Amino acid sequence: MKPKMAPYFRVSTLGQKEDDTVQRQIMTFELQWTVLSKSFDLYERIPGGKQEDQYFKDEGYNLEEWKSDTDFHRLMTLIQTEGVDAIYVDEENRLFRARSREFRGRVLDLIEQNGVRVITKNGEVSTGSLAMEIVSAVGADDKRAMLRKCHEAKITRLTSEGRPPTGRAPFGLNWNKKEKKWELVPEEARIIRCAVGLSIGKIYDDMPDSMKGLIELSPGGVPDKEVASALTSAGFTKRITKRSISHGIDYSGVKAIFASDTCRGKIIFKLKKADQVGNPKFKNGNEQRVTYEVGVPRILSDEDWENLCFKRNQRRKWARRNVQHEYLCKDLLVCSACGIPLAARPKDTERFLKREKRLVHYPPTLYYTCARKQKTSGFRCSANKCHSSKVIDALVWNEIVRLLTEPEFLPSRANNLEQEDQIQKRKESLSSAKTGLSNDLTRLKEISKNLARRLGKGLLSEEQFLIANSENLQEQKRITEYLHSAEEELKSFNDSNEKIDFNVLIESIKNQLPLSNFEDRRNVLKSLVSCIRIEPCGQITLLLKHGLQFDI
């Protein structure tokens, strides 16, 4: 007589139940049953029933607790009372995936005591390997509990004794384990004082004479590289970082000294909470950290440290690409030829002086130029002249100053423009240009559709389609930019009526005075000016808000 086998299938979540995931386990068993049936008979839950009626199946059950209304409970009861000799599961974790150590041990005891064999799709699993799997799971839980206790102990010792949680002390300090207190390391503390003194130009009593002489020559302090050279020349060989050279203190060592403020009499530790240790939810920076401050012996005063930070920041050399220049008319200047805003750019100039044998860097020349390029826009703008930022900004700002300081200037400009009827003519030209551009854009979109149709019918090769479509898209982009520029300028005319109260406008702008810095001037200009058109010849047209415009 063959031993009886009871197949058991289980999925943990309701989502897996809705996706009918358990069916995959059943299909795997039925494929293997042709081989297993030579050694086992199927246990009959329902005598004379179909094969699928004999299966033990749980869906949405994650072995969190021993439930009496599950097939898992019925199967565990049968192996104690009736002749169930073997259990088939897709994987052994279908029986032993419970989080509770007591639950896993109870299942293993039932299987061992009743001599039940566990069969998976990969073959029979020995009870020894099952026990090892449970022990490893138990070990992981115990390990997490141990880590949390150790972390709690670190926090307790840090708050009560001031002991560093990592066991490592910063440069210049040491933790005395026997006396349980922080102490200064005299040699390292002297190196810190010498480095800071050289950087800020201050003489300390324990400095070598060579350093004192260097400070007298440079009372404002010296850069970090000269600090490193002076320390090495004075005979200091203490290694500060792992990358520092062993025969002296290099530039990286000086940077490491200045990077930490532990010499000010306090150390700040940031530790995560104990309940987050070992929890996979709190990884990759998601943990919440608590700040602890510990008092230590002071090496430097707060005044010296702040002076050090200030002077090192002043000596800092910024890359040219990161320097922020002041362009008063940036984003307001518009190219009259193509209608897009002008780009503001610097030009760096350097010259090598042969007699002095040194390279001289001159202040950058700031200029405005049309940013229309052939690679990105389909054509290059004909207005390729560069305009000096210094000249353009000065001309525009002089006009703004006249608006603010001469009450008769703005009304006289407005009267002249109203007599010439330039505003109405500009409006009409913009409206007609907008209509023409919209029609051109519609025509180009229709051409794009026709190209796609011809490609689908085989009238065009793929290479011909790509070339024609690319040219079409570039032209669409160019016309879209023209259309956007015309709409923006037309909007500036329609923001309000042409007849405006100039006195009210001037008074509202004067409330923003005094214009003490660049940002104030920039804000005044943006509040007054809608756009500034510039011709290739250099002619500037200032378009104020509410539709007023005049030439400079």
Give me some keywords for this one.
single chain; 552 residues; alpha/beta; 6-stranded mixed beta sheet; flat
Describe the structure.
A hairpin with a 4-residue loop joins strand 12 (342-353) and strand 13. Helices cover 47% and strands 16% of the residues. Helix 5 runs antiparallel to helix 6. The termini are far apart. The longest helix has 36 residues, at 422-457. The chain has 552 residues and is an alpha/beta fold. Mean pLDDT is 78; it is low at 242-246, 374-378 and 496-500.
The level of helicity is: 40-55%
- Structural class by SSE content: alpha/beta
Discrete helix count:
18
What about the largest sheet? 6 strands, mixed
Unreliable sequence segments: 242-246, 374-378, 496-500
Binned strand content: 15-25%
Radius of gyration: 41 Å
User: What is the average of the pLDDT values?
Assistant: 78
How many strands in all? 17
What is the general shape?
A: flat
Q: What is the terminal separation in angstroms?
A: 110 Å
Write the layout of secondary structure elements.
Elements: E1 4-11, H1 14-18, H2 22-36, E2 41-42, E3 56-59, H3 71-81, E4 86-88, H4 93-96, H5 101-113, E5 117-120, E6 123-125, H6 127-160, E7 173-176, E8 181-184, H7 186-200, H8 209-217, H9 224-233, H10 251-259, E9 266-272, E10 289-295, H11 302-315, E11 333-335, E12 342-353, E13 358-370, H12 374-377, E14 387-388, H13 389-405, H14 409-420, H15 422-457, H16 462-494, H17 502-510, H18 518-528, E15 529-534, E16 540-544, E17 549-551
Parallel strand pairs: 1-2, 1-3, 1-4, 4-5, 11-15
Antiparallel strand pairs: 5-6, 7-8, 9-10, 12-13, 13-14, 15-16, 16-17
Helix pairs in contact: 5-6, 7-9, 9-10, 15-16
